[in-house]
Amino acid sequence: MTKNLVFPDGFLWGGATAANQYEGGYGQDGKGKAIVDVLPAGKNRKSVMLGRLDYKNLDEDTIYPGREAVDFYNHWEEDINHMIEMGFKAYRFSISWSRIFPTGIEEEPSEAGLAFYEQVIDKLVANHIEPVVTICHFDMPLHLVETYGSWRSRKVIDAYLHYSEALFKRFKGKVKYWITFNEINMLFHLPFMGAGIVFQEGEDEEAVKYQVAHNELVASALATKLAHEIDEKNQVGCMLAGGQYYPYSSHPDDVFDAMDKNRNIFFFSDIQVRGHYPNYAKKKLEQLGIQLQMEPADEEILQKYPVDFISFSYYSSRLTSADTSVGEVTAGNVIHSLRNEHLEASEWGWQIDPKGLRTTLNVLYERYEKPLFIVENGLGAKDELIDGTVEDDYRIDYLNKHMKAMRDAILIDGVDLIGYTSWGCIDLISASTGEMSKRYGYVYVDKDDTGQGTLNRYPKKSYYWYKDIIASNGASLE
Ligand code: BG6
């Protein structure tokens, strides 16, 4: 029905990366240590990400893949040239907090850090690519973790606002789209990677997580306030790890369970968009016996400074049952799900569900009636470089189906979707596994899981395919 129809004028086609998995430049030009610098590859990665294994207890020969990543720090011009060549309208990237404030508590920002991002932003703007900046993407100065216990402390709210203010001021008039925290709901699932939390023995983990969540929510609202005060043109978004839960069966208990699990996904955005804790969350805190430490102005802050748009990642839908004895657990973007027999899966077991993207877009739009922005989506796959390129038809197929689902959501359902930045547009390190071989990009980067490789870049078949999609504003979708 929608064949050959185009996306709205000004639709922000592009790609996304994050400093923690892409930038490298460890310690260069005064960069301070960040949490990603202590995230190991291999068997201990998960326990560290969960906050259950202290990164200080790792062996000396541990490999830390985020330290070099794919070295955008020293390849930024070449990489942006690829984005220009593909015709990107937007590029989402994150700033490394410890490159701007090495310990997080300095008075003055690092000039070298700001200058690095300024040249990146200037090149984007000169080529009509809208920068979309994530202020905090699984990344913060390690000093804040070690000194204050990370986001447990309100001191980190102040540090985050000081950092955000430095960015808003320096990039005023150049950056309009800001995202306060990447996948803010991930802190419930990977507390160290998401929010720098290492649990102490005997601690009430649920209580810590909700307090950290509250502190981040206040920080996000105050950053939104600041962004608007510094430049009224600024648009600030929340960002959630999206993907609807489906009920495993039509049994009412499964339907209720799916609704309840979806609330966990929406907990943060409900507050960031609507400006208050929903009743279901208040009741849940009561039932868990958790008393949040709030300051008198907190509720007013949350109320007064909601976000302007909702951004989210989408890799798959999820499946749940009230009956814990049924179904088989599947791999996916960290958050628990049962395997859906109707779906195929990637080589990493992540299920593929383009229609689920259309559902997610509709659910989010109906819930919030604010512009939506898909800032991550894509297929993590093993690629083979042959004769300087990769014939990645599987990736093209995945992207094509998801883009058609977006088109249906916009043109048939009336969803207000402003852009799409696919994940890892240039190959980068996987967040969940630390592997290089899980590739999402249009550009292949020569590096392997052991860290060996030239770091040379090679456009894949999907590079030229995406270039056509952007040039035709979606009309060339199959
Ligand atoms: C999202 C994150 O969870 O998914 C990214 O925001 C991450 O940082 C992406 O890379 C894909 O996950 P993975 O584990 O395949 O890298």
TrEMBL record:
<comment type="similarity">
    <text>Belongs to the glycosyl hydrolase 1 family.</text>
</comment>
<keyword id="KW-0378">Hydrolase</keyword>
<dbReference type="InterPro" id="IPR017853">
    <property type="entry name" value="GH"/>
</dbReference>
<dbReference type="InterPro" id="IPR018120">
    <property type="entry name" value="Glyco_hydro_1_AS"/>
</dbReference>
<keyword id="KW-0326">Glycosidase</keyword>
<dbReference type="InterPro" id="IPR033132">
    <property type="entry name" value="GH_1_N_CS"/>
</dbReference>
<dbReference type="Pfam" id="PF00232">
    <property type="entry name" value="Glyco_hydro_1"/>
</dbReference>
<protein>
    <submittedName>
        <fullName>6-phospho-beta-glucosidase</fullName>
    </submittedName>
</protein>
<feature type="active site" description="Nucleophile">
    <location>
        <position position="376"/>
    </location>
</feature>
<dbReference type="InterPro" id="IPR001360">
    <property type="entry name" value="Glyco_hydro_1"/>
</dbReference>
